[in-house]
Amino acid sequence: MNRDLYIDFAKGLATLSIIFIHTAFWSGQFYIIPEIRVFSLVFDVAIFYALSGITSGNNVEKTLYRLLKLQITYMIFVTLLFFLDYFFKIFGLTFFSLEWLQSFYSTFGSKYSATSISTAPQWQNLGNWYLHEYRNADTFPVVMGSFWYLKVYFILTVFGVLILKFFPKHVNWFIGLCIALTLLFNIFPEIYPSGQVGYVAFYMTVFLVGNRMRGKKIPTKMIPVLYGLVALALAWMFWYFGNEIFFKINKQKFPPQTPYIIWTFFSLTTLFVLYNRLKITKENFVTHIGKNAIFFYFGQGISSSLVYFLVVPMKELMPWWLLMVIIYVINVALAFIIAAGLKKFDDFGWKILEFLRKKTAAQN
């Protein structure tokens, strides 16, 4: 079966959009105007959940094996991150001082100030990362700030494949249930549950709708109808919540609330409209990113942390829009380099695990 390059292309564009979002909302807090920061959210993580739904089937064993491989890759990455963070702190304390390190970390702003500068390794942090409790990595704060997506992805994929396997004739009922829960939580915000329930209620809808779209094509005559409905939803949002809601979209994202949900409609509609309509016939830079999306997602957390040290000295030297373009291009380039390195390190980690497996396997 030939690989659908449109899926890789969409993943690649979504990954580039995530890099732009993190350029705008992290180091961009120092210089990018609020309007651009909000518009950066037009193509956001909901696209990844929709694409996951399109590519998911009802093979439980295959899905769980894929998630296990992803978990191991994730653990290899955060192990590397842990030691990079620890050795940098040792370097700073040995050759400079605690005050120098504190000054270094102040570059990220007071909200992300270092909390565990010590010569003793904080092994509990590594253990918590393995278990998807994303305690901040002081030297690379954007990394753990990005990882909420991964926990929700694991939950969605497990429950999603179980629904597709054991209730294949009732997928629409589950979509209806998730929509009903999402509406209930938003109509009565006082009962909106904490934790992952609110995230899963909305993103499971996206996942299952994506799965129902698998192999299908939206009729041409329906395209203006769908975009018209998106426009009506946006108009209602501004009428009901007021124009100031525009600047609060990001705060409505954690967990997903009505304004942010409506904000995702445009990107999701565009994704499904172009699916089986836009033909990508050759590999390119964007499809390469899409095929290696997880390594770029890991890499952009590191690169988005590093560009802080360019933003702070440069933000007074040029117009904000020019600096934004320069920092974004640098961020993408760094993410590309780091992702390539992470992929090689992942291969090395798997070779070590395979060596250990052979050494500890029972002898017949």
Task: Give an overview of the whole structure.
With 364 residues, this protein is mostly helical. The chain is 69% helix and 0% strand. It is built from 16 helices and no strands. It has helices at residues 5-25, 34-39, 46-55, 60-95, 98-105, 123-130, 141-146, 148-166, 171-187, 197-212, 223-241, 258-274, 285-291, 293-306, 308-314, 320-360. The longest helix has 41 residues, at 320-360. It is globular and about 65 Å long. The mean pLDDT is 92.
Provide a short characterization of the protein structure.
This protein has 364 residues and is an all-alpha fold. Helix content is 69%, strand content 0%. The mean pLDDT is 92.
Termini distance?
38 Å
Give the overall average pLDDT. 92
Low-confidence stretches: none
Structural class by sheet pairing and helices? mainly alpha
Measured as a percent range, the helix fraction is 55-70%
List keywords for this structure.
single chain, 364 residues, mainly alpha, 16 helices
Write the layout of secondary structure elements.
Layout: H1 5-25, H2 34-39, H3 46-55, H4 60-95, H5 98-105, H6 123-130, H7 141-146, H8 148-166, H9 171-187, H10 197-212, H11 223-241, H12 258-274, H13 285-291, H14 293-306, H15 308-314, H16 320-360
